[in-house]
Amino acid sequence: MIEIVANLHMHTPYSDGTWFHRDIAAAASRARIQAICVTDHNVHVGGVEGYHSGVLVLVGEEVHDYSRRPQANHLLTYGAGDGISTFASRSQKLMDEIHARGGLAFPAHPIEYASPLDRELDKYPWVDWDVRGFDGIEIWNFMTEWKRSMKLPQALIAFLFPSLLIRGPFRPTLNLWDKLIAREGRMNGIGNSDAHGIVVRRGPIHKTIFDYAYLFRCVNTHLLIDKPLTRDFATDKRMVLDALRAGRAFVGYDLGRSSRGFSFKAASGTARAEMGEDFKRRSIVTFEVRCPGVGLIKLLKDGVVVARSFGRTLHHQSIEPGAYRVEVYRFFRLWMRGWIFSNPIYIT
Ligand SMILES: [Zn+2]
Ligand SMILES: [Zn+2]
Question: What CATH number is given for 263-347 in this structure?
């Protein structure tokens, strides 16, 4: 498998972002990201997919019902094509239509907290949990976490030095993810920037919250694809969507140290699995975690920590079936912060 770094949630002036696709692709290239998916609100922008600045640029959509009060249920869709937002007011119908078109559906920022400081920083959680058929959820959204940190007394720090307050996915979101994995049997996790590049003015201070280039160095989804990107757009788009569909991915916070090179594998007899894969155990299962740097590595089974290690590797053996996933934390800017969150390996 070949690892590529992707960011799958951002906006352009076609909705509420500030940069157009080609400029965003150039920023992604500078951040050494190989693939992006632009997800404007309720609009599928045509004619811009392709390779720009050496970056694979896909177009998805962030669909929600503008007429709903209060606002909620932002759904990231990939590979579903144009016109999908006409189903926004009926979540199950929307989900079914996305899948009928061969697309994928991930609730964006499923748990959100409003900032008390600005009505613009309201919360938009997912609330229609009786809907079935999600391919996964967005477990970590940089802007969602930043929005939560925009409160007193720390607002100025959040405004000027966001990385001092970015700590990792919300624990309730990780707990929700584990519950959904138990309910559905499998559920993929992704992490993204939600970049808008909006300029905020407060008196003499003008600040971009936050520019695309900065955010592409922060929370990304690392995908494992079948072979190196070919530069043939249709082939590469299919490989990216296949990896997303299969959950062959982990979420990395790449600002302090890139999470490139992380691996999580399981083996039992001749059976082997990577993130997102499954196998039926025949004997004892051996798990191996490798990190590109030192961190606190936790192996979880069905949401419960079963092994931990401080260093670059973790080895564990078990005969228990379950959904196994990994969380890694590293010391960065005076705090232990979330670094890597793997998708599960499913042992039956
Ligand atoms: Zn949203
Ligand atoms: Zn968004």
Answer: 2.60.40.10
